Amino acid sequence: MHHLYQIQAQIITNPIPSVEPNRIAVKLIGVCAAHGNMRHGELIFTHYLTSPNIFVCNALLKAFAQNNDWRSTVCYFNYQLVLPNAPDPDEYTFTSVLKACAGLAQAAEGEKIHSLVTKYGCESNLYVKNSLIDLYFKVGCFGIAQKLFDEMDVRDVVTWNTLVSGYCLSGHIDKAKGVFETMAEKTLVSWSTMISGYAKVGNLEEARRLFEEMPERNVVCWNAMIAGYAQNEKYADAINMFRRMQQEGGLAPNDVTSVSVLSACAHLGALDWGKWIDRYIRRKKMELGLSLGNALADMYAKCGCITEARRVFDKMQERDVISWSIIIAGLAMHGNANEAFGCFKEMIAHSVKPNEITFMGLLTACTHAGLVDKGLDYFHMMAPAYDIVPKIEHYGCVVDLLSRAGRLDEAEKLINSMSIKPNVIVWGALLGGCRKYKDAERGERVVHRILELDSEHSGSYVYLSNIYTSMGKFKDAARCRLRMRDNGVMKLPGCSWIEVDNTVYEFFMGDRSHPQSEKIYLMIKELRLKMKLAGYKPKTDIVVHSIDEEEKEDALSVHSEKLAIAFGLISTSEGTTIRIVKNLRVCNDCHDATKIISKIVRREIIVRDRSRFHHFKDGRCSCNDYW
DNA sequence: GTAGGGTTAG
């Protein structure tokens, strides 16, 4: 980048008489675009050129379009139209601006440009036609796109690819497949388009089949496959694909690959892999742009390293709403509510406008710290101050906030006053409060509302049966459980992960499938003995189905996180921090047990559950038992 | 000109 400034300075102080300034500007803008520094490219255009010609105008538009800055592309195009001495747009101009319009999915603007294409006689150009087809697909006008395609006398492979991509984007995957199969010539782009098309509709088997079948592969199709897995919650598959890419592909992962893999790591809590990518990024000196920086910060936050997340965030050159939202949500997950609020203030000071997701972060920060009124303040601030209409997720959070604090009346009133139809999650949050504060009457009412919406809501059945049991209505409780079984209701099985030596091990409740299972159970037995000596009493009252005390205790001791912790203890060296990720919320008993275990074995144990992080150390937890 | 990427309640 440095030499660019030198060249530029030289031109300004010492213009080369024989060279037209526009020619130099075209080159400079090209360099700026390649470096992603369009602020500078814009400067060259606006400040150092007295009479830009068509070449330099096109170079600018192309540069913006290349950097996905579609708004600027359209903006400068419109500017060119109204400027008195500006050159007329040509087919190069239109390809750039049509791409930008497609990116913005602006139908009205697109139609306006289409008419200009005709006016300036560029409609017979193949590039322009291909761009028009793409545009019409992206604004949802399949009919017009197909008609333009049908009317063409000459089509190239890009024309066909555009058609396939258009049908994929609009969800007409079968139509896309039909076109794809009739194509005489297929390029890497054709295959990648189909692969990502299948991935987008969740058909990973078909995506994979095409991937295995294709004659050659580049980074993009590997990325499409990895991203497909990551976006369909098959995070382990995404990472496995990434491993395979390195083993057999002979291709270097790029920033897009890293973003997908980091997202998978974040979801799995696979810190070792995440750190590996971080080192890779540094080794390859990849630029920490918005996407990559955000993905990296989010990975660290979700893997329990909030300090590291903050370090990445601070190092980023540019930060957008997403960056701020990630860091706020990260702090919230770790229970650092005040820091999250501080970050929000900082964000506003940097004049970044918060979005709905930012507020989710703030609200969860309040939930995890039990700051009810602060949460209500944020909730009521959204619409008037920031023009964000609260969505069902925000209501869910606030109902949760009120319910946990025992303000059940307010919570129920809020639900009944909602302009959106409350869903199972909102009611479920209230049900949680009813359980905690033993409000059986309200609880029954809520259960009925939930079962109206979802007859397979396992939590409701379990709750109802517990209520009946505690009231001594054993027959009702039994009937409830029977109904649950008859409806085929299954509780989501508890599952925990632990990463040891770059491998993610998965444990289910009562799991005995692990090769070291015997050792694990021996460890649990030993721990249970030591815990008893330390005065720990299992909280057996939460176990519904068994009667026998001994049996209840057994059921508790094989919760998946206990298995994962036991495995962690036998397979890592003394003093190492143990990191567990869990798909459900950690139960009361496991929470107590883990606190004591951390003291007995003198280890820090970090558990990420469904909603937050618990840092167990020396018999205490960072959540202060509020979760 | 056509393919691949980041944040969202329980």
From TrEMBL:
Keyword Repeat recorded: yes
Domain of life: Eukaryota
One Pfam family cited in the UniProt record for this chain: Eplus_motif
GO biological process: RNA modification
Keyword annotations of the record: Repeat
PROSITE patterns: PPR (PS51375)
DYW domain span: 535-627
InterPro entries, per the entry: DYW_dom (IPR032867), E2_motif (IPR046849), E_motif (IPR046848), PPR_At4g14850-like_plant (IPR046960), PPR_rpt (IPR002885), TPR-like_helical_dom_sf (IPR011990)
GO MF entries: mRNA binding; zinc ion binding
PPR repeat start and end residues: 156-186, 187-221, 320-354
NCBIfam families in the cross-refs: PPR
Family under the similarity heading: Belongs to the PPR family. PCMP-H subfamily.
Protein name: DYW domain-containing protein
Species of origin: Rhamnella rubrinervis
